[in-house]
Amino acid sequence: MNEKIKWGIIGPGRIARAFAKGLSYTSNAELYGVASRTLQRSKDFANEWSVPMAFGSYQELAEEKSIDAIYVATPHSEHHDAALTCMRNRKAVLCEKPLAVNATQAFSMVQEAKKQEVLLMEGMWSRFPPLMEKVRQLVHEKVIGEIRLLQADFGFMPKDLDPAGRLFNPSLAGGSLLDVGIYPISFSSMLLGMPIDIETIATLGKTEVDEQASYLLKYESGAHAMLHSSICCETSQEATIFGTLGSIRIHKQCWRPQKITITNHSTEKQEIIEMPFNGNGFNYEAESFSDLLLSDKKDSDIMPMQESLEIITLLDRIREKWGLRYPFEKN
């Protein structure tokens, strides 16, 4: 394999542009190919980002021998099929979150990765910036004691309210849960594991997707997580971890962490730590994934396949409580 991983991108949309920009800040990766179902769309993206190869189908990119890894940046509903196409051609896959729309799909993807002996990882990019690594370290060292409560939210007001668009279209697995709710839920999983009990409520909009939802999770340790997601209003977009000795607050846009405040509850002393991105944030997961591939590793310690399976299973349980199924799940 080359010293630099040659990347391909499937689905040249907004998130693909963010990933392409992130790749430009890495030391071990380069963008080499792009695929869309429309060749002209691929060519336009290739021209925009100086990508050597453009393809008019996902299959063609997957079969291209010079490509080492593929970033799947399609709508949620297409993650499963696109990732399988890549892995069946022995390509490593970084699949934008959520890994799939349900546990059945996710399980088949993990099984295919094991069968083909290729690297598969969910693109939960918020886990990879240096400050999130610092948060994990502080929690592990019990700087704030034992975690008792985690509060986190991600809500925003979309500019595009098109009912046929990816956010509001149930056929594309739209809604707040899979788009932004997965961030606080994955965050709680990273710190507390899987809950032993869940309570949840959601508001379904005119298109029958969850426009906002609240989640209350209880853990074996006795800790609770209070989480919220919304695509109908902007929320504080912060996360706070409360422990027996203190707290850690991740400031606004907590999913792209660059500033935290650590508070000691007995002394009321506060410490602020800031770690601005070197790049746009996507570079950290791209660099980590490329390192794994160069080291011939088949799983990530930061975002393991098993944890992604557990998270999507939890999301299934949440949707079941709402009575929400996507149209393609009803057949």
Number of strands: 14
Topology-level CATH name of the largest domain: Dihydrodipicolinate Reductase, domain 2
The biggest beta sheet reads:
8 strands, mixed
Radius of gyration: 20 Å
Number of domain units: 2
CATH architecture of the largest domain: 2-Layer Sandwich
Q: Reading side by side through the largest sheet, how are the strands ordered?
A: 8-9-10-7-11-12-13-14
CATH superfamily of the largest domain: Dihydrodipicolinate Reductase, domain 2
User: Tally the helices: what do you get?
Assistant: 9
Q: What is the H/E string?
A: EHEHEHEHEHEHEHEEEEEEEHH
Helical residues, percent: 25-40%
State the end-to-end distance.
Answer: 43 Å
Mean pLDDT: 97
Strand content: 25-35%
Overview of the structural elements:
The protein is of the alpha/beta class and 331 residues long. It has helices spanning 14-23, 39-49, 58-63, 79-87, 103-116, 130-140, 176-192, 282-294, 305-322; strands at 5-10, 29-35, 53-55, 69-72, 92-96, 120-123, 147-155, 197-204, 210-218, 224-230, 239-243, 246-250, 259-264, 270-274. It folds into two domains: 5-126 and 282-300, Rossmann fold, CATH 3.40.50.720; 130-276 and 312-329, Dihydrodipicolinate Reductase, domain 2, CATH 3.30.360. It is 33% helix and 25% strand. Strands 8-9-10-7-11-12-13-14 form an eight-stranded mixed β-sheet, with helices on one face. A hairpin with a 5-residue loop joins strand 13 (259-264) and strand 14. The longest helix has 18 residues, at 305-322. The radius of gyration is 20 Å and the shape is globular. The model has no long low-confidence stretch (mean pLDDT 97).
